[in-house]
Design brief:
The chain is α/β, with parallel strands linked by helices. It contains 11 helices and 14 strands. Helix 2 crosses helix 3 and helix 3 crosses helix 4.
Length: 329
């Protein structure tokens, strides 16, 4: 697998504040890569270093095999949508974007055609001659996305691309990102973990400037699973120990008492089962099958099995932070 972005030992200090500390990971080519982390994790700092807006204290960033310290070599191949992209408020959006393309070496005709096509992609062609000051927040956000999409960049950095958008517009932006994956690698920073899980195929999680987890979304959400298990009766100590000896089973904890309020036994006793299947070198089906077989061998009837592992729960586990956050650092 080739990599579009390679980050090695990346560190950044602002005075006494260590914004990033020896961060290393790689972004596969033609992937949609999510960058997650709580407030102050270092996400926007990492984006700024990748775009060469900031200089690293240590380490390197390579985009398409080029060290970003020589950013001019990536002209036209790398683009970025900053979190709070701004435009001249009293200049028509068509004129502004055409100006940007002229700076990139396009003729006036080429620039005009490219801009109209891109504005059409994001649903803004009808307002191309309006001033930015007349646009809604959601339209301005889509204008920023359009600027990042202009030309044919091979790597696109999107910092909170759907922040502030209504569901319909946010979905449109996600659909555009998916279309671009056919010809570009896209890095997305977002506070919406469900969105990242739906949109991205790879992810990195930062916390306090350190990388705590990176890999494919599928591997992260499937290898460390949670199951809500309903059993015909409560587990005894010896039975619990036998289950915990199974490969990949990390913990099994009761979530309900064995008896109800009236003192009568419950029809089903609930347990939360956590597995780490990657560490055991087995797949999900094998791990779950071993658990169910052992329960039956013990004479315990599984009454309910609800599997699931969201990126949100994994985020909370590895960072210890609630997943609801809005600001980036």
């Amino acid at each position: 697998m080739t990599h579009a972005v390679s980050i090695k030992g990346l560190s950044k200090r602002f005075g006494r504040t260590q914004a990033l500390h020896e961060v290393s990971f790689e972004v596969p080519s033609r992937s949609i890569f999510g960058l997650l982390g709580p407030n102050g994790a270092g996400k926007t700092t990492l984006f700024s270093l990748t775009a060469n807006f900031l200089k690293a204290s240590a380490g390197t960033v390579e985009v398409l095999g080029i060290d970003t310290r020589y950013i001019s070599r990536l002209q036209g191949r790398l683009s970025i949508l900053p979190q709070d992209a701004e435009f001249q408020r009293n200049v028509p959006i068509l004129d502004q974007l055409v100006f940007f393309r002229r700076l990139a070496g396009r003729t006036k005709q080429q620039a005009h055609e490219e801009v109209l096509h891109t504005l059409d992609m994001v649903g803004l062609q009808a307002v191309a001659k309006r001033r930015v000051s007349s646009l809604s927040h959601g339209m301005i956000k889509r204008l920023g996305v359009a600027q990042a999409f202009l030309g044919h960049p091979e790597v696109i950095l999107l910092d909170e691309p759907t922040s502030g958008l209504d569901p319909a517009n946010a979905r449109q932006v996600r659909d555009l990102v998916r279309q671009l994956q056919e010809r570009a690698t896209i890095l997305v920073s977002s506070h919406n973990l469900a969105e990242i899980q739906d949109l991205c195929d790879h992810v990195a999680i930062l916390d306090h400037g350190r990388l705590v987890l990176a890999g494919s979304v599928d591997a992260i959400t499937r290898s460390r699973r949670e199951c809500h298990l309903g059993l015909s009766r409560a587990l005894q100590n010896g039975e619990l120990e036998r289950l915990l000896a199974l490969p990949g089973l990390r913990s099994i904890e009761p979530t309900s008492a064995a008896t109800g309020r009236s003192g009568h036994p419950l029809r089903s006793v609930e347990y939360l089962v956590k597995l780490d299947l990657s560490a055991a070198g087995i797949d999900q089906d094998t791990g779950i099958a071993a658990l169910l077989k052992t329960l039956l061998d013990l004479g315990i009837t599984p009454r309910k099995l609800t599997e699931g592992r969201s990126l949100e729960s994994q985020f909370l586990e590895v960072t210890g932070h609630p997943p609801q956050f809005t600001e980036q650092t």
